[in-house]
Amino acid sequence: MITERKKQVLEAVIKDYVKTAEPVGSRTVARHYMPEYSSATIRNEMSDLEEMGYLTQPHVSSGRVPNVHAYRLYVDHLINDGLINPIKDTGTEKALIARLQQMEDVVCTIAQSLSDMCRYTVAVMLPRQKNLRINSLQLMPIAPARALLVVLTDAGIIRDAVVQVSSELTADDLYGISRAMSERFSGRTLSEVQGLLQGIAIHAELEPRVMQGVGELARQMEKQASADQLRVFGSQNILFHPEFSDVEKARGFLSAVEEKQNLLKLMSRGVKQGICAYIGHENGIMELEDCSVVIASYEMGNNHRGSVAIIGPTRMPYQELLTTLSSTASILSGMLKNSLGA
Amino acid sequence: MITERKKQVLEAVIKDYVKTAEPVGSRTVARHYMPEYSSATIRNEMSDLEEMGYLTQPHVSSGRVPNVHAYRLYVDHLINDGLINPIKDTGTEKALIARLQQMEDVVCTIAQSLSDMCRYTVAVMLPRQKNLRINSLQLMPIAPARALLVVLTDAGIIRDAVVQVSSELTADDLYGISRAMSERFSGRTLSEVQGLLQGIAIHAELEPRVMQGVGELARQMEKQASADQLRVFGSQNILFHPEFSDVEKARGFLSAVEEKQNLLKLMSRGVKQGICAYIGHENGIMELEDCSVVIASYEMGNNHRGSVAIIGPTRMPYQELLTTLSSTASILSGMLKNSLGA
DNA sequence: GTTAGCACTCGAAAGGCGAGAGTGCTAACA
DNA sequence: TGTTAGCACTCTCGCCTTTCGAGTGCTAAC
């Protein structure tokens, strides 16, 4: 069994190691964290902890370094014992909400500033949107034979494209077509719209080239919305951590993060828990075996959930990051509810 | 005077050094580049070239390394003697043009793929747009008391924002307002619009909150358009070059590139020439003193010019990069003309 | 003008050495 | 029985020396 004092020692080792990135000796622990005991006592405890599989010595007679298991124990303790208290800040929210309409912008802006703030790499997953419904469509003239087609969906997603139209159409004509289209298509899902466009019947009365444009745009939107997407920010931050002072490793990290497939899988898994951490090899990505991924999920109204992650070396300040991350996730949920819902 | 043979030797040294990143010895040059001479001959030539200031020895009795002056000579030769032949490719153009309407997207997409392709860092300058004129405005309903305001300018810039409107307005009402606004504002510059909105007279008949939104958006657009902007892509690529295997240096590079002010100044200068290269300290940016910046300018129709740059270590394949870069610039000019003009 | 030959220089890699940090173990103490 | 002091031992790190090889400069011969 692991005694209370052992836990204290373990925590001390973790904290010191996170700070210094150097193996921690018994003397250090005794002096800085548990002055009521002598180094010899701590030494014995550390020896036990090593035997139990929580600490490792890089070589005999150096200090000790926490293990994946140690971090695991520590993180579980943090998460389960309610030491993660998201701070609900409302300042940023107000400042941002005015300028950001689209879900994607909101999420990316937050992620960017999170990565700037904590100097780690941040990834966000934008969940796939099943059965997006069209809210309205509008055409506006931009040049003699060209119009801008804007499509709004119920999830607040706005997409536009330039379409060719016949040159004799006036702005009013375009508006008329817009109304007719909106009437026909609003409330329909993107795939329904594509289906409808297959039927020749509709084509006749409306501009066929516009219809083609609508179909094309619908297909694009659906394609983009039907897969989970991943965005990564601040990947350069990895260079600030001494475990990546070897350029080879830094490059490995960057390419692993660029290659989004694996990360996406991990983050989809992370969506299910509220907040969780994959420590070291637990993340299952070979190039990231010396990294940890802390994931929190956020809500976006219509029953969809995305997730946001901080990625860094195994040696990271879990308590701080878990707190920051879960705050961020809750801010994000709030913003998305306010700006898109209602 | 520099003889023809000296030039050959110099070119050989440059080419070999670019390839291997190791100091080049006389034997290597003789064997691989000029087998008609012996190493001793080359040795004498190299000794002369060193005295003339084109080569440097990292230490006595190592091979020699080309200098800033050597690169300068080489690059001038390349540029002036017409060795840079832009390849006009039309494949990418067709594929991209369908999906990209906004100038910014076009430029950024091209820059991204350029950096992927050549594995260097790429920066693009988006020139400031003076006196943008409004082409048309349009409101479309998105929720009971909200509308999407879309603004088109003559430079093909599209910007949108959500504005609050009173809840009893129908889609037709919004269209009416759009028409009225378009009539009033189209052809005016952004600052004129802001000026007009100061006059109370207009407010009365149109929705005041919409007018506020227009003003706000116009201000934003003008602010964004009135300063040159810089976008950087593939900054991680620097890690592939051995001169940055020291993480300190890599970090210096990244922060210099992130801090866009200096780079922007350099690139504005580069706009004036068609294509040019700043080698080593010539770029005037302290953190980039061991880097070169190759710049080409592109045209965007309305007499505005932007520029695109490749940034990497001084040791770079200038011929290849100059060619690629100037091709890219001409493709870009072409795309912008096609998609925005007319 | 070109080349062969040779002595010389210097950096990079390999081996040796001492200092310092940290451990494990034992014995003494409360 | 748990804690502590003391001591011998181990291993890394930084520093120095040595060796090896690549490449040069110079001279003399072609």
Report the CATH architecture of the largest domain in chain A. 2-Layer Sandwich
| Major sheet summary line of chain A | 5 strands, antiparallel
Q: Tell me the series of helices and strands of chain A, N- to C-terminal.
A: HHHEEHHHEEEEHHHHEHHEEEH
Mean pLDDT of chain A: 87
Q: What is CATH's topology name of the largest domain in chain A?
A: Beta-Lactamase
Tell me which oligomeric state these chains represent.
homodimer
* Name given to the CATH homologous superfamily of the largest domain in chain A: GAF domain
Provide the structure class of chain A.
alpha+beta
Continuous helix count of chain A:
13
- Strand ordering within the main sheet of chain A: 7-3-10-9-8
Q: What is the total number of structural domains of chain A?
A: 3
The helix content of chain A is 40-55%
| End-to-end separation of chain A | 53 Å
Task: Describe the model.
With about 350 residues, the first copy, chain A, is of the alpha+beta class. Chain A folds into three domains: about 5-65, Winged helix-like DNA-binding domain superfamily/Winged helix DNA-binding domain (Arc Repressor Mutant, subunit A, Orthogonal Bundle); about 90-130 and about 225-340, GAF domain (Beta-Lactamase); about 135-225, Heat-inducible transcription repressor hrca homolog, domain 3 (Enolase-like, domain 1), CATH 3.30.390. Helix content of chain A is about 50%, strand content about 20%. Chain A contains 13 helices and ten strands. Chain A has a five-stranded antiparallel beta sheet with strand order 7-3-10-9-8, sandwiched between helices. Chain A has a three-stranded antiparallel beta sheet with strand order 4-5-6. In chain A, β9 and β10 form a beta hairpin. In chain A, α1 (about 5-20) crosses α3 and α2 crosses α3 (about 40-50). The model of chain A is unreliable at about 95-100 (pLDDT under 50). Chain A binds a DNA duplex (30 and 30 nucleotides) through α3.
